[in-house]
Amino acid sequence: MDKEKIVSLLNEDLEGEHAAIIQYLTHAYAMGEGEMACEIEAIAREEMRHLDWLAETIVELGGVPSLKRGEMRTGGKAVPDWMGNDVLQEEDAIKLYKEHIESIDDTKIKRLLKRVLSDEESHHGDFQHFVEKAQREGATDLRGARTDKVAQTLNWGIEHEYTVVLQYMLQSYLTDNEEAKEELQDQAINEMQHMGWLAEEMVGISGSPRIEHTEVDQSIETADMLRADIKIEQEVAAEYDRAAKEVEDPDLKELFIRLRDHEIYHAEVFSDILEDEESS
Ligand SMILES: [Fe+2]
Ligand SMILES: [Fe+2]
Ligand SMILES: [Fe+2]
């Protein structure tokens, strides 16, 4: 099998991981702060590690990690239905990984996919258990229909954070500047945290988080990537600053100020790396 074919199979796996992450986070956020939501978020974090391994392997093979998201199952009225959807998502992943382990002849990649497969089999069991647990405990959908200005700002923030998570991850795989790679990975994790905080607040104010992203910067040169990142960080810091001044709720005010300060920090970190990059 040639490298191009392997890259296309791994990208298919990666798109599945992306879909699973967002599907599981959507469910965890909607359930609020409970033990089961925490466990589902932990599973989503394992899928993020899978995504990271797959993307690194794709880049090693000379490919570009896909930004597409595979099919999600976000239907279902009640929590046990959602957990049933997550079981099905894992079944799809297990089937696909088995096929790809069978068809790819590279020993190292086979080993990686087997490692991932064993996690998916364990997740499958976890979600089967959650179907029953959700029924037993009567877990409910805590989301509401609030769509006022505050809810719009929170969804705007979620959209921004999701976009930069993807952008910084992609850039971290593509850059050959080691310092940029490390910072981009760190900040991607931080933006993921931001997305979680905003989504949890959204459910807290009886709104409904919408986890969609806008266009991701596709620069090839590290300096261009950093310029795009600095611009977006500065814009978003100004936006969070404005939101902090407008909002009445003290918790939300505090959240927006914290986010603003993180984004200012990101812009500064990226500016320093850009300076080095330009002088090298
Ligand atoms: Fe999984
Ligand atoms: Fe952020
Ligand atoms: Fe940021």
Short description:
The protein starts with a helix and ends with a helix.
Write the layout of secondary structure elements.
Blueprint: H1 3-31, H2 35-60, H3 79-103, H4 107-137, H5 149-174, H6 178-204, H7 222-246, H8 250-279
Helix pairs in contact: 1-2, 1-3, 2-4, 2-5, 3-4, 5-6, 5-7, 6-8, 7-8
Bound molecules: fe (ii) ion (3 copies).
One fe (ii) ion (FE2) binds next to helix 6 and helix 8.
Protein architecture, described:
- The chain has helices at residues 3-31, 35-60, 79-103, 107-137, 149-174, 178-204, 222-246, 250-279.
- It is mostly helical.
- Helix 1 runs antiparallel to helix 3 (79-103), helix 2 (35-60) runs antiparallel to helix 4 (107-137) and helix 3 (79-103) packs antiparallel against helix 4.
- The chain is flat, with a radius of gyration of 20 Å.
- The model has no long low-confidence stretch (mean pLDDT 96).
- Bound molecules: fe (ii) ion (3 copies).
- Residues 20, 47, 90, 93, 119-120, 123 line the site of one fe (ii) ion (FE2).
Q: What is the gyration radius calculated from CA atoms?
A: 20 Å
Low-confidence runs: none
Strand content: under 5%
Q: Which term fits the overall shape?
A: flat
Associated small molecules: fe (ii) ion
How many strand elements? 0
Instruction: List the total number of helices.
Output: 8
**Largest sheet, described in full?**
none
- State the end-to-end CA separation: 39 Å
The SS-based structural class is mainly alpha
Average pLDDT rating: 96
